[in-house]
Write a structure and sequence with these properties.
- With about 525 residues, this protein is an alpha/beta fold.
- The protein is about 30% helix and about 25% strand.
- It is built from 16 helices and 27 strands.
- It has a nine-stranded mixed beta sheet with strand order 2-1-11-10-12-13-14-15-16, with helices on both faces. Strands 4-3-5-6-7 form a five-stranded parallel beta sheet, sandwiched between helices. Strands 17, 18, 20, 21 and 22 form a five-stranded antiparallel beta sheet that branches.
- The protein is globular, with a radius of gyration of 23 Å.
């Protein structure tokens, strides 16, 4: 199935329903379909053909949706780009993807000016806002276009999108995602548009990220009204939920923490909210417990996946977030809040050792996944592809274990696990404990080279303003609550941890900065 059909289905069922709300603009499903079709014709007129790459760099907007579905009509390949990149980083991605056209938001005009003539493949630059003699204008292209319909020939296994990884461990890699990468998840896990059901979905996750794209495509197929926040801002988020009667939201842990701790949290009516899906980074147990307390009427879902998996592959469902029963049952449920749940029905997951053999319950190994939605590989990087996809299994690089009830627990990335004196130590276990300390606001644990032990444990901590913490206190706290070999050998205190836009700690940067301690 071609993803363009997802929009066609909803447009035929609920043509007059509001599909997108973005700032002061509202578009029905019929209007979004028409604008995508007009854009496809305009791009065809300037030479965009099957297989060409269409790149876009901008904050969240309705143009992301229109451009993606226009690209599907032309059998072109959409390339959403991280809008936080510097010139050198952007050029690397453009030189790798070789797009024929680049669309950009007005705030990136200066950046794009600096890149002109540096990427030979780009024939056209299209501005989504600012006008200039150097660029084509997005709205003018649509206004001067025609409504001829296209019959795309791309099949379900063909590439529809190249999404670049963050590049925290080296140069970014272009993940090739097929139509199946999105439709297999959507058709198996999302109900289609229904004239009698009108959900209102708030999207704040960046649309250059797999979580944002997945949320967008799922909302389109479900016939939801998609309320787009161009960038997350807590007061704006709270106001949108109240004013637009939002009932569904996708968030990352740092966003949810910011919301529930915001001084204006109690000043808004958030009673319309029914479902909050979270993911993209580890969720501290104390944060989700507080969120459950402050949103007692909301169903929570923890969705786990990665760019290479195309979409969610495991989920911790709403029933797992209901903390009730006997004390032992409550404790079990609280422990499971630190898991990533169970595999979805249309995906197969195993946990294997270094030789690829499946391990027993409770044994740590690498999480591997198989299904039609996993990536086709990395764009023009056969070596990296062959080391990640083996015998049709995606090797995620995430280490974890499965308990006797089928719940999967992450222990960290394979490159992050600390190897000390023959013992494999999970940084996540130590970090979870440290976050239980009243004076620890944030923390990261890494391994640093050591001649005797191979690696030693370094805890990097952000503390509160009490000035009561010391290296000795932290080490003793860990010694009292963990096996002795898991306690940090050294501790440093910093003002803020380096995180990417979705809240993941950049441990590569920490290792480079503090690895010689």
């Amino acid at each position: 199935m071609n993803t363009c059909e997802l929009l066609e289905i909803s447009s035929s069922i609920v043509p007059d329903r509001t599909a997108v709300i973005f700032e002061n603009q509202r578009f029905s499903y019929n209007e979004i379909t028409q604008r995508s079709n007009l854009l496809a014709n305009a791009l065809s007129e300037i030479g965009i053909q099957k297989g060409d790459r269409i790149a876009l760099i901008d904050v969240n907007s309705h143009q992301h949706i229109e451009t993606y579905f226009a690209s599907t009509q032309l059998d072109a390949i959409f390339v959403p780009i991280n809008y936080r990149l510097k010139e050198s980083e952007l050029l690397k991605i453009l030189e790798t993807a070789n797009p024929k056209i680049l669309l950009f938001g007005s705030r990136y005009a200066k950046l794009i000016h600096s890149c002109i003539d540096k990427v030979q493949s780009i024939r056209h630059y299209v501005s989504l806002g600012v006008t200039s003699d150097h660029f084509l204008d997005y709205e003018t292209l649509i206004a001067n276009s025609n409504s001829k319909t296209f019959s795309p020939t791309h099949e379900h296994s063909d590439v529809t999108m190249i999404m670049f990884t963050s590049g925290t461990t080296g140069n970014p890699k272009g993940v090739m995602l097929s139509h199946d990468s999105f439709t297999s998840y959507t058709l198996n896990n999302v109900s289609p548009a229904d004239p009698d059901v009108n959900e209102r979905n708030l999207l704040t996750v960046p649309m250059y990220h797999i979580a944002g794209v997945q949320a967008m495509i799922a909302a389109i197929y479900a016939g939801r009204t998609l309320i787009i926040q161009k960038q997350f801002e807590p007061n704006g988020w709270l106001k949108l939920v109240q004013d637009e009667l939002v009932d569904r939201a996708m968030m990352v842990p740092t966003m949810l923490k910011t919301i529930i701790e915001h001084p204006n949290f109690g000043n808004y009516d958030l009673s319309s909210l029914e479902v909050i899906t979270y993911g993209a980074a580890p969720m501290p147990t104390n944060v989700i417990l507080e969120a459950i307390e402050k949103f007692p009427h909301v169903k929570f879902i923890n969705a786990f996946g990665q760019t290479e998996s195309g979409a969610t592959i495991t989920a911790l469902m709403p029933t797992d977030h209901i903390i009730n029963g006997t004390e032992s049952e409550k404790n079990l449920k609280i422990r499971r809040l630190s898991s990533i749940g169970k595999p979805l029905d249309d995906i197969e997951i195993r946990i294997v050792d270094e030789d690829g053999n499946e391990v027993n319950s409770g044994t740590i190994g690498e999480i591997i996944a198989q299904g039609s939605r996993i990536m086709k590989g990395y764009w023009n990087q056969d070596k990296e592809t062959s080391s990640t996809i083996k015998n049709n299994w995606l090797h995620t690089g995430d280490l974890g274990y499965i308990d006797n009830d089928g719940y999967i627990f992450l222990v960290g990335r394979s490159k992050d696990v600390i190897k000390r004196g023959g013992e494999l130590i999970s940084p996540a276990e130590i970090e979870d404990l440290l976050l239980d300390h009243a004076s620890v606001l944030d923390c990261a644990v890494i391994g640093v080279p050591d001649e005797q032990w191979g690696e030693k444990i370094l805890a990097i901590i952000v503390t509160d303003d009490s000035n009561t913490l010391s290296e000795e206190i932290i080490i003793e706290f860990c010694r009292d609550n963990l096996a002795s070999y898991k306690k940090p050998e050294s501790v440093i205190f910093i003002e803020k941890l380096p995180r990417n836009p979705l809240g993941k700690i950049n441990k590569q940067y920490l290792r480079e900065s503090y690895g010689n301690r």
